[in-house]
């Protein structure tokens, strides 16, 4: 079956612009996660959805970052007034269950470059 | 969640067995140990998970001593395609952590012909 998909695969933008990154989880997966990965580092947790609600958004670095999942499936990560430090690969993952599910299925990521 | 420590890099040759050890001295009673693998330009992929003793699947084995303060991921007869970053994660994901994963910097395994 289809895995987690993310679009776009690459996004180049200018400092100060607004960007949206999309994640399509595996069908039927109720939990969805966003991570950010900088070069040479492991993924860093941003936010976790259980259904439509954000169960844990403590990893979002500041209020320029926001994510939604209005129908409990597709999610969009939104970044306002982008800064060069936001450049990274943004990974989305989904899992079947909620807090008990350690196996998360990751998408290929969106590489964001802020010039 | 317990902090983990693992080597930054390892080298091996095709056909050899590779063992990557991870230290997690502050592991909690209800913590599981999970390993993920990541290839360049891809998201991490779950390899194996265990709580104690030994776990084996079609890809790898996971050895956990009685004190659970460390674990060893064993990859039998590696091939070039096993070149990747391997992450050791500790946490229960079944309570207050709500399933979020904490990755360290991982171990870059390079397999040579």
Explain the layout of strands and helices:
The complex is a heterodimer of chains A (115) and B (113).
Chain A: E1 5-7, E2 10-13, E3 19-24, E4 31-37, E5 44-50, E6 53-56, E7 65-68, E8 75-79, E9 88-95, E10 105-106, E11 110-114
Parallel strand pairs in A: 2-11
Antiparallel strand pairs in A: 1-3, 3-8, 4-5, 4-9, 5-6, 7-8, 9-10, 9-11
Chain B: E1 9-13, E2 18-23, E3 32-38, E4 45-50, E5 53-56, E6 61-64, E7 70-75, E8 84-91, E9 107-112
Parallel strand pairs in B: 1-9
Antiparallel strand pairs in B: 2-7, 3-4, 3-8, 5-6, 6-7, 8-9
Strand order of the largest sheet of chain B: 1-9-8-3-4
The helix-strand sequence of chain A is EEEEEEEEEEE
Span from first to last CA of chain B? Answer: 38 Å
Tell me the β content of chain B: over 45%
Low-confidence stretches of chain B are none
Task: Write a compact overview of the structure shown.
Helix content of chain A is about 0%, strand content about 50%. Chain A is mainly beta.
List its traits:
heterodimer, A: mainly beta, seven-stranded mixed sheet, four-stranded antiparallel sheet, 0% helix, globular, B: 113 residues, mainly beta, five-stranded mixed sheet, 9 strands
Account of the 3D structure:
With 115 residues, chain A is mostly beta strands. In chain A, 0% of the residues lie in helices and 48% in strands. Chain A has strands at residues 5-7, 10-13, 19-24, 31-37, 44-50, 53-56, 65-68, 75-79, 88-95, 105-106, 110-114. In chain A, strands 2, 4, 5, 6, 9, 10 and 11 form a 7-stranded mixed β-sheet that branches. Chain A has a 4-stranded antiparallel β-sheet with strand order 1-3-8-7, with no helix packed on it. In chain A, a hairpin with a 2-residue loop joins strand 5 and strand 6. In chain A, 35% of the residues are buried. The model of chain A has no long low-confidence stretch (mean pLDDT 92). Chain B is mainly beta and 113 residues long. In chain B, the strands form 2 sheets. In chain B, strands 1-9-8-3-4 form a 5-stranded mixed β-sheet, with no helix packed on it. The chains are: A mainly beta (115), B mainly beta (113). At the A-B interface, strand 4, strand 5, strand 9 and strand 10 of A face strand 4 and strand 8 of B.
